[in-house]
Amino acid sequence: MTRGYINCKIWHSSASAFLIEDGRFAKLGTREEIEEQNGNNELIDLKGMLVIPGFVDSHMHLAELGFYLSQMQLIGMKDSSALKDKITAYRQQNPDARWIIGRGWDDTLMERPDKKMLDALCPDLPLALTRVDGHVMAVNSKALQEAKIDENTAAEGGTIDLASGILEENAIALIQKAMPAPNEKKIRQYIELGQKLANSYGITSVGSDDFLAVVRDYRPVLNVFEQMSYQEALTVRVNEQCEFVDLNQYAQFLDEGYTMDVGNDFFRIGPLKIIADGTLGAETAALSEPYADHKENKGMMTISEDDLRIMTQLASNYNMGVIVHAIGDAAVDTVLKVFKEFELPGNPLHSGLVHCQILRQDQIDEICRMHLSCYVQSLFEEDDGRILAERIGTKRSETCYPFTSLLHGTLTSNGSDAPVCMPQALHGISLAVNGVQGIKETMSAEEALSSYTEKGAAQIFMQDSIGQIKEGSYADFAVLDQDILTCDPHEIDRTKVMMTVMNGNTVFEK
Ligand SMILES: [Zn+2]
């Protein structure tokens, strides 16, 4: 059975109509050609709108996005009285909750929540609120008690401040382990919520990092994804960025026969994902020179160079690419040093760096020379542009967020890191094109769209089947109500996704 679409503009094509069959683009052509081939089957008039490949959000956390949507959402919160209202409302709606969990506060917008504030707001139940970037957590006394954290507790690659109830980086896992773990049914609900939201923004494919996000165990997450892929219940294609901190667990995973490329076109095992440092917002990104506003602070590495080397060695033994969260230039130095020891000409496994924010020119050159894959987030520029100069000074800022240089020099894709940012791909494109104060580089609309589609497809070796509108590719596409490539750049942000189709199925319609 075919379905025809007529009266549209198509990115990178002069065709004005197309036909899909068995989940793929069967033909691109004129209205007459498509109508004739489609016969009496369904025909959709797109009224002159633009058809683009479904967005590839190259780095996000799909299950955690759904988890975020089901907990207290604090993004954009301006003060502690708003937080108080949130907690009261949440408790009324969830009278059986054993833990109160929220995410999204940003201490560049509001006073940093601490134990004293949280004890006053919620004395009787454990309360844990994660910063917008996921790298700092504020908890109340009850949460510290539940997690059995006291002055004797240590966290390598993290910090615990008992007085303020603030935990950074690896210490956050101590609290997460004490929270009630969701079962597979719940994990599936989170994934369903996450993919539904992604579809509404035109996304049909994600690079998703989920193994440590909601249960800190890969098994149940893998079970759910595999089941959903066999049942064709996924409405985004998932390339799993397999995050491990425990070497034994990673070895066990490999032992079970999992390595990069295992799976199918709905769910596939992607590269090993490692986190090397913190974030700019939390001032935990590892810098070679101190932060400009806190001279004693150079951020922190969340993995030692030796451990990074051992994990990379193991991955390369199994032909698995490695991608490393590295935001500060000191973290990038360490990653480049280790990657160089395992360097293969042309980087065939597409190993690379996630975020790539605080870079020096010599590092940009080296990343391009090694053809490392870069996973950037134009969406981050909105918040980080405001604080960049204050955090690291204007001189160092010059070569930071060099996303266009990376796009020109090596394989570079775009994404949201959801739930850090909501996966609003068009907003990301608008920020990349229009630029933000404090960040030097901008992209053309063509480049930004490419970074959000074909580049991400190429990174996961799917350039022949997704990321472009062409005969034989999967029918993964989005329909936009205006042409973002020719409209006034300031109009991009107002553009709406009218329809999202994945594997020939309409998964979102406005
Ligand atoms: Zn992430």
Share of β-strand residues: 15-25%
CATH class of the largest domain: Alpha Beta
Mean pLDDT: 96
- Relative helix content: 25-40%
Question: What's the CATH H-level superfamily name of the largest domain?
Answer: Metal-dependent hydrolases
Features:
510 residues, alpha/beta, Urease, subunit C, domain 1, Diaminopimelate Epimerase, Chain A, domain 1, TIM Barrel, 3 domains, 8-stranded parallel sheet, 23 strands, 21% strand, globular, binds zinc ion
Q: Quick summary of this structure?
A:
This protein has 510 residues and is of the alpha/beta class. The protein is built from 17 helices and 23 strands.
Question: How would you explain this protein's 3D organization?
Answer:
The protein has 510 residues and is α/β, with parallel strands linked by helices. The chain has 3 domains: 2-54 and 472-509, Urease, subunit C, domain 1; 99-178, Diaminopimelate Epimerase, Chain A, domain 1 (Roll), CATH 3.10.310.70; 184-459, TIM Barrel (Alpha-Beta Barrel), CATH 3.20.20.140. The protein contains 17 helices and 23 strands. The protein has helices at residues 31-38, 62-70, 80-93, 115-121, 141-146, 172-178, 184-200, 218-230, 247-255, 305-317, 329-341, 361-369, 381-397, 403-409, 425-434, 445-451, 454-459, and strands at residues 2-6, 9-10, 17-21, 24-29, 43-45, 50-53, 55-60, 72-73, 100-105, 127-131, 136-139, 158-161, 166-169, 203-208, 237-243, 267-275, 322-326, 352-355, 373-376, 412-414, 477-480, 497-502, 505-509. The strands form 4 sheets. It has an 8-stranded parallel β-sheet with strand order 7-14-15-16-17-18-19-20. Strands 8-9-10-11-13-12 form a 6-stranded mixed β-sheet, with helices on both faces. The chain has a 5-stranded mixed β-sheet with strand order 2-6-21-22-23, covered by helices on one side. The model has no long low-confidence stretch (mean pLDDT 96). Zinc ion (ZN) binds at residues 59, 61, 209, 417.
